[in-house]
Design brief:
heterodimer, A: 2 helices, B: 390 residues, alpha/beta, Aconitase, domain 3, 5-stranded parallel β-sheet
């Protein structure tokens, strides 16, 4: 069990299986909000479903409409359970704030592997990897 | 972050739910990005207007804020997914139109000026030099910071709307002078005459330096329209919010040590790269939306001619009204070209309807390919008109 300390972006607690990407994610155009699947061509997570996962990636990218796409996924029930970033930027930050998805950044994401069971405790700015 | 008494009350809900949730977004962002305080904004430009991008969830989000939310500063809107009056002629489906109208109604209820344009600076949203604003729309952000000397971060739909409903933004990033200094010199040695020259220049510089702030040297002169095209292109291909162009843009900057060069062959290559060499089936001009001068030029070129292809001329509605007064719109419509207000070929839901887009916009080429899976052809306006009327 490893505890990683970061910075809270959006409060809340969540648990789930980690889905880790080495590349940034664009929620507008890069993820299908209806299915929760990553659709960006050539993306390391292409074809994988983010729904219910603790989604771990370096940072957001792409259009600012991505914030609304995250909100859309939350309403449809296709959103990740939590988001963990190396470095947050405004698209993901606004997305998780309006969607109330627990989110922590400034995490050394290399220490997390896809399939790890991760508890996110954003209230205390930390995550636990089992 | 230090909040004033009034700001704290806004966050606590004294001014209603829309203000409360807006303050929550702004204060959260301010804390994440190290702002010390909130500052007043002089105006707002909101993105996230097309129903195509918002979906039902986004529409609900807006309708919820519209219950008790009212804008506190001049606020204008980005393009919608359709011409709000002439949508039938542009082939927009009725169910889409219903939803798009609901989106615009929600904004109107909040007091947003529903002009739907990516060039708010052409239609009266023009604060004075040095003022802080909260603008979304990457091309307008770049134009505001670089050409008008306003100060804005690259806002998204929800954060810009939050600024509109509170009149505030957290002070970080582009609002602070220390973050507005050039990071790299770009020496341009190429003939810069036309709109596509400037579009190609934005493409080359954007790909070379990404989000860095450039001090561009070697440009003798640039029109408002050329700068508009350049801003759209450099923001699309690089992601920058600000550049300095020596002798042309008004901001002061320190001079960086690093430099890169841009040559004529690189510009020529960029133009080739935005050319898939196929037969266009839609010609679209006005990304970003046209100036009044551009509409006049297009009308003169189309006078007495008939277009043989689908052709869209994209403008803000207030520009269209003035152009109507001058007779330009009648000339354009008599040629068979269609005026598309409130929208453009990038945001309208036209994927699948056309195969190849011909445009003078480097930004239009990027989104035509990426969003609508079109092939693209990149040409000057006179060439586009000549081809479409041949």
């Amino acid at each position: 069990m490893t505890e990683l300390k970061g910075r809270k972006v959006m409060v809340g607690k969540a648990e789930g299986e980690a889905l880790v990407s080495t590349d940034g994610i664009s929620f507008y155009g890069g993820v299908d909000t209806e299915t929760g699947k990553v659709v960006e061509k050539g993306h390391p997570l292409e074809g994988q479903c983010v729904t219910g996962k603790v989604l771990v990636f370096p940072t957001g990218k792409g259009s600012t409409v991505g914030s609304y796409a995250i909100y859309d996924m939350k309403k449809r029930g296709t959103a990740p359970a939590a988001i963990v970033n190396k470095e947050i930027e405004t698209i993901i930050a606004v997305g998780v704030i309006i969607s109330e998805i627990p989110c922590v950044d400034q995490i050394d994401i290399k220490k997390i592997k896809t399939g790890d069971k991760v508890s996110v405790d954003a209230d205390n700015s930390k995550i636990t990897v089992n | 972050m230090q909040l004033t008494k009034e700001e704290q009350e806004m966050l606590d809900g004294k001014y209603g739910n829309a203000v409360k949730s807006s303050m929550n977004i702004l204060v959260s962002l301010g804390e994440i990005f190290g702002a010390k305080r909130l500052i007043d904004v002089a105006s707002v430009q909101i993105a996230g207007v097309s129903y195509h991008n918002l979906g039902d969830a986004g529409l609900d989000y807006l309708a919820d804020l519209a219950k008790d939310g009212k804008v506190r500063v001049l606020t204008t809107l980005n393009p919608a997914g359709m011409d709000m009056e002439n949508w039938k002629a542009l082939g927009i489906p009725e169910d889409f139109a219903d939803k798009q109208i609901k989106v615009i109604e929600a904004f109107k209820k909040m007091g947003v000026v529903t002009t739907c344009t990516c060039t708010p600076y052409f239609i009266g949203n023009v604060p004075h030099y040095g003022q802080n604003v909260s603008w979304a729309e990457s091309s307008a952000v770049c134009y505001a910071n670089s050409v008008l000397g306003l100060k804005t971060n690259r806002e998204g739909g929800p954060s810009a709307l939050a600024s509109a409903l509170t009149g505030k933004t957290p002070e970080f990033g582009m609002h602070l002078d220390e973050n507005r200094q050039a990071e790299v010199i770009v020496n341009v040695d190429a003939g810069m005459e036309t709109i596509t020259d400037f579009g190609a220049l934005g493409y080359v510089i954007g790909k070379k330096i990404g989000k860095k702030i450039a001090l561009i040297r070697g440009i003798e002169k640039a029109s408002v329209e050329q700068l508009k095209s350049f801003c759209a292109s450099i923001a699309t291909y690089g992601g920058t919010a600000l550049f300095h162009m020596e002798g042309i843009t008004p901001n002061k900057t320190t001079v960086p040590k690093d430099s890169v060069d841009v040559s004529q062959p690189e510009l020529d290559k960029a133009k080739e790269e935005m050319n898939d060499g196929e037969e266009p089936d839609i010609y679209a001009i006005g990304c970003p939306h046209l100036s009044l001068k551009e509409v006049e030029d297009i009308a003169k070129r189309l006078e007495g001619k008939k277009v043989k292809k689908e052709m869209w001329i994209c403008v803000a509605r207030p520009i269209k009204r003035t152009a109507e007064q001058m007779g330009y719109i009648k000339t354009i419509e008599d040629s068979g070209a269609k005026i598309a207000c409130d929208t453009c070929m990038v945001v309208a839901p036209i994927k699948g309807r056309f195969k190849c887009l011909a445009t003078d916009s480097a930004k239009g080429c990027f989104y035509g390919r990426g969003k609508n899976s079109f092939k693209v052809v990149f040409r000057e306006i006179p060439e586009l008109i000549e081809e479409a009327t041949k």
